[in-house]
Specification:
This protein has eight helices and five strands. A five-stranded parallel β-sheet has the order 3-2-1-4-5. α6 links the parallel β4 and β5. The chain starts with 7 loop residues before the first helix and ends with a helix.
């Protein structure tokens, strides 16, 4: 049985639309949980209390990547699919002024919100970059840790994503991923259903 490829361009366009709406209309009901009540239910570390409310209201992660361990002061961290920046801001508070955090996302509206949160928090060791997980615009061995929350499941070419994560991590670096997984193969029809990918 051959698998019909999905229209990756259409998929990315729909994902951008969905997450632009999360950034611009956070009070709207989405098919997935969002906002402060959700992130608090996930048991985030105390640094969450310092993250600006406007950032947290557009949180759209699926779990808590920090449950896999705290980040250490001085570490260089990549937040893959940073969205509105909640995880990036928690991370920058953990690594302190001697560390750095870089958030990357393909949705300009989310990046705008993330940059606003960083400015409100007054941190200078946090940058946000527009880009895609399958083609990271960073040199080899740039980061000590890669965190990601509910993003890799949205990308059809997971081999490319993990190849890029491996490339940008220093030898012995680590990943802290919170994501959605499935236990059974998805049908050909299901793979083509854009709504299943975006929600």
């Amino acid at each position: 049985m051959s698998v019909t490829p999905i229209d990756v361009g259409l998929l990315k366009s729909e994902i951008r639309k969905t997450y632009a709406a999360v950034s611009q209309e956070p009070e709207k009901d989405f098919i997935f949980p969002t906002g402060r009540a959700w992130v608090e239910d996930l048991g985030y570390p105390p640094e969450l209390g310092q993250v600006p409310s406007a950032t947290v209201e557009s949180f759209a992660g699926v779990a808590n990547p920090f449950s896999l361990g705290r980040l250490e002061p001085g570490e260089r961290v990549l937040d893959l699919g940073c969205g509105a920046g909640t995880d990036s801001l928690v991370a920058v508070l953990m690594v302190g002024p001697e560390g750095t955090v870089t958030g990357i996302d393909m949705t300009p509206e989310m990046l705008e919100k993330a940059r606003g949160g960083a400015a409100e928090l007054g941190v200078e060791n946090l940058t946000f970059v527009e880009g895609e997980a399958e083609r990271l615009p960073f040199p080899d061995a740039s980061f000590d840790v890669v965190i990601s929350n509910g993003v890799i499941d949205l990308v059809p070419d997971k081999d490319a994503v993990f190849g890029e994560i491996h490339r940008v991590l220093v030898p012995g670096g680590r990943i802290q991923i919170a994501d959605v997984t499935i236990q059974q193969p998805v049908s050909d029809e299901g793979r083509r259903n854009i709504d299943l990918w975006t929600g």
